């Protein structure tokens, strides 16, 4: 079974492709029943349907290839609830040779571009001809050529269709040189925005300034005290964002919108405002700048709430230091007080951490209610408070970048890639997304882990057990990209009549707004089979890569309420149970222990997870750890595994690059290593290679092969860096240099200072056990039964 081919068709990766029929058997699997779902994965062939989906009247499942259709009577039977539904009159022309695309057997995923703004379900398309239907002899192109109707409301009665709203929140405490680079990039972003995109500007230091972009006589701002918490209602009142009510009691248009305007109406004003930003005066000696980051974020969110922009918006924060005053404070301004470390957090010595985290949890709820995304661009050599802000960024699906300077190429690439536009000139952004799951009665939903928020909507598909964001069958996402991946967890219901080899179904319904504010709905319907006790199908359907990714997410979820050593102990316990369950061995004989090929890599993944930066936070700041965990919790299976167990390629004169073991023994004087850990890419030159390069042999025409050897890893590294968001840090180092620590820290320490025979290889000074010793201990514990 090729799991990658299935993922290319479905956008899903399953930990188990065949599910047991009883709860005790599910519990014995150790790895939970889970699906890694990438809702907007790029598929080879995706039918685009320019009409609203047809839903089951009983369970709301969308019409799909697994329904049973009685063509003479125009009735279809839902596979989820077995309810009978009648096709509307617009489907009158369907028959065995002319069927809608959503019924075609090869299309388990289809996407609807809804005609009605905000419509969840409407009438089916007119079936006069080929629109929406697929004949066995006709092509699909006739129905995929759809131009989305304009959607969104007009702004201030101007007739302009509103695009996404973006509020830039700029730290004025940034040094002047850095601030100039930031302003240059923001001005570049303004030029790339569509004319209907709404923009706002908030600048903060010890005070928060909201710019009135509709006032053209001069630069006019509204000031907020950076030390006082401002509620949503207070923000609206101070900005004059009041509403009039209609006779039905519903809120109508906002009376004042000068703080948030389309680019076409305020391009000159916002350009002038950005150019006018200057670095705040230097603070007194021995003190940090006074930053009110928390109030600035709260005011920016209140601005969007007050303007009723609940169809998709972003708050983009650019900062270069920690918040030192007001709600969300990280540390006070006196340099005599150090910024909190992991030890401070564990021992309860971080004075502001708990209160600031609670403040940002409240912000995250406001973000979710108004479909606002929070992004953080941290360009500083110090911590800025990303650990506290993480909950708001993650729940809204926002972007986080930790850098060193606004002048860096990493910052420029990250910011510019976010504002890429498609062929129609729309931003490649998605907003206001929800994911709904429909299951057959025997399958219950436990929860989800990823950049989503539970909407707490219950039905018969929701199970009693909660994992992560549970207690619902619908989740809210501020945004979703083609890379966004969410882990969903399932359990068995209370049914006792599940038949082995029978089929169960799961449907994922992802609704979102594209950059043109048009509503789209992607529907993926899949089926798998139940497997009886001791069925070989269960083991054959195990995906060890997904299992490692799922366990990594569960582990970092546990770290939020448990100490790291307790999480490591839990991982070890689960691994021993797993090995004891699926290993082949003679009891009490470790030398007889074997794992089949589709299980054999899983212990290795767990070894590297235990010593990864997600669990072992030594030498990492709380901000860095928050960033690492946030990225792991949203990336797909492949990228998650690269984070846990990085890849290592060897370049030599002997031939093309080859993958080698992530082991210290792979280091050699006459080879180049390309190391990829997702967050940084390292090109490691062996001592001989480095010496030849310093002597300039690569510039000698008689050493053409050496020049090509040096170029090969550079080209591959550039490709890795260019394709990944956020852009990883590129490090070039020589063997035995200080920068080589980025590579050595991740290698298996098979040769240490305690090794008897080193054979001239590099040595890692560590007390960690090697992978071989780890596996030996695992075998001893697994065979004890």
TrEMBL record:
Residues 543-641 form the Sec23/Sec24 helical domain. GO terms for biological process: protein transport; vesicle-mediated transport. Pfam families: Gelsolin, Sec23_BS, Sec23_helical, Sec23_trunk, zf-Sec23_Sec24. One of its GO terms (cellular component) is endoplasmic reticulum membrane. GO terms for molecular function: metal ion binding. Keywords: Cytoplasm, Cytoplasmic vesicle, Endoplasmic reticulum, ER-Golgi transport, Membrane, Metal-binding, Protein transport, Transport, Zinc. This is Protein transport protein SEC23. It comes from Abeliophyllum distichum.
């Amino acid at each position: 079974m090729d799991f990658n081919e299935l993922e290319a068709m479905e956008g899903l990766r399953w930990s188990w492709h065949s599910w047991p029929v009883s709860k005790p058997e599910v519990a014995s699997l150790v790895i939970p029943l889970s699906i890694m779902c990438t809702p907007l994965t790029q598929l080879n062939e995706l039918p685009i349907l320019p009409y609203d989906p047809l839903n089951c009247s009983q369970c709301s499942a969308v019409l799909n290839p697994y329904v049973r259709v009685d063509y003479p009577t125009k009735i279809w039977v839902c596979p989820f609830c077995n309810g009978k539904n009648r096709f509307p009159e617009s489907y009158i022309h369907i028959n065995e040779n002319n069927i809608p695309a959503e019924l075609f057997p090869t299309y388990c995923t289809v996407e609807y571009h809804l005609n009605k703004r905000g419509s969840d379900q409407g009438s089916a398309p007119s079936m006069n001809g080929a629109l929406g239907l697929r004949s066995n002899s006709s092509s699909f192109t006739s129905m995929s050529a759809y131009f989305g109707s304009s959607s969104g409301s007009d702004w201030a009665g101007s007739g302009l269709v509103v695009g996404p709203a973006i509020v830039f929140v700029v730290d004025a405490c940034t040094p002047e040189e850095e601030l100039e680079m930031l302003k240059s990039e923001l001005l570049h972003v303004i030029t790339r925005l569509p004319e209907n995109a709404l923009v706002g500007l908030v600048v903060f230091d010890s005070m928060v300034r909201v710019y009135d972009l509709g006032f053209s006589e001069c630069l006019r701002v509204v000031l907020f005290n950076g030390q006082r918490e401002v509620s949503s209602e207070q923000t609206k009142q101070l900005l004059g964002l009041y509403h009039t009510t209609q006779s039905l009691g519903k809120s109508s248009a906002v009376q004042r919108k000068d703080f948030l305007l389309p680019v076409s109406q305020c391009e000159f004003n916002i350009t002038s405002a950005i150019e006018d930003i200057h670095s705040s005066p230097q603070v007194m000696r021995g003190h940090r700048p006074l930053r009110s980051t928390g109030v600035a974020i709260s005011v920016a969110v209140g601005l969007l709430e007050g303007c009723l922009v609940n169809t998709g918006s972003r708050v983009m924060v650019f900062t270069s230091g920690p918040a030192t005053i007001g709600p969300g404070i990280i540390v006070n301004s006196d340099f005599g007080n150090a910024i909190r470390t992991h030890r401070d957090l564990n021992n309860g010595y971080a004075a502001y951490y708990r209160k600031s985290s609670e403040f940002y949890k409240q912000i995250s709820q406001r973000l979710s209610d108004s479909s606002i995304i929070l992004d953080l661009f941290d360009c500083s050599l110090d911590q800025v408070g990303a650990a506290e802000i993480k909950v708001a960024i993650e729940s809204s699906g926002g972007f986080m970048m930790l850098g060193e300077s606004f002048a860096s190429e990493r910052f420029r690439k990250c910011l510019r890639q976010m504002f890429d536009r498609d062929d129609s000139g729309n931003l490649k952004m998605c907003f206001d997304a929800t994911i709904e799951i429909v299951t057959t009665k025997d399958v219950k939903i436990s929860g989800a882990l990823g950049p989503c928020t539970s909407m707490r909507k219950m039905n018969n598909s929701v199970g009693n057990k909660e994992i992560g964001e549970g207690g619902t069958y619908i989740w809210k996402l501020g945004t979703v990209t083609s890379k966004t991946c969410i882990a969903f967890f399932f359990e068995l219901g209370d049914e006792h009549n599940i038949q082995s080899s029978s089929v169960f179904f799961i449907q994922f319904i992802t609704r979102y707004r594209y950059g043109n504010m048009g509503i789209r709905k992607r529907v993926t319907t899949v089926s798998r089979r139940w497997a009886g006790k001791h069925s070989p199908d269960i083991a054959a359907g195990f995906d060890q890569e997904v299992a490692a990714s799922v366990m990594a997410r569960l582990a970092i979820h546990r770290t939020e309420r448990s100490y790291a050593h307790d999480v490591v102990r839990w991982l070890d316990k689960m691994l021993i149970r797993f090995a004891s369950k699926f290993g082949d061995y003679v009891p009490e004989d470790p030398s007889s222990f074997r794992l089949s090929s589709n299980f054999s890599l899983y212990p290795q993944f767990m070894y590297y997870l235990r010593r990864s930066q997600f669990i072992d936070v030594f030498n990492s700041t709380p901000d860095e750890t928050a960033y690492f965990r946030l990225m792991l919790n949203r990336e797909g299976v492949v990228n998650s595994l690269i984070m846990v167990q990085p890849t290592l390629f060897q370049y030599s004169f002997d031939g093309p690059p080859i993958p080698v073991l992530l082991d210290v023994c792979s280091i050699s004087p006459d080879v180049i290593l390309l190391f990829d850990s997702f967050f940084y890419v390292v090109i490691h030159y062996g001592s001989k290679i480095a010496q030849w390069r310093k002597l300039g042999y690569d510039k000698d025409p008689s050493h053409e092969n050496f020049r090509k050897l040096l170029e090969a890893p550079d080209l591959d590294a550039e490709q890795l860096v260019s394709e990944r968001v956020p852009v990883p840090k590129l490090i070039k180092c020589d063997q035995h240099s200080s920068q080589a620590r980025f590579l050595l820290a991740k290698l298996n320490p098979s040769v240490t200072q305690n090794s008897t025979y080193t054979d001239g290889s590099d040595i890692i000074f560590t007390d960690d056990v090697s992978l071989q010793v780890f596996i030996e201990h695992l075998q001893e514990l697994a065979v004890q039964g």
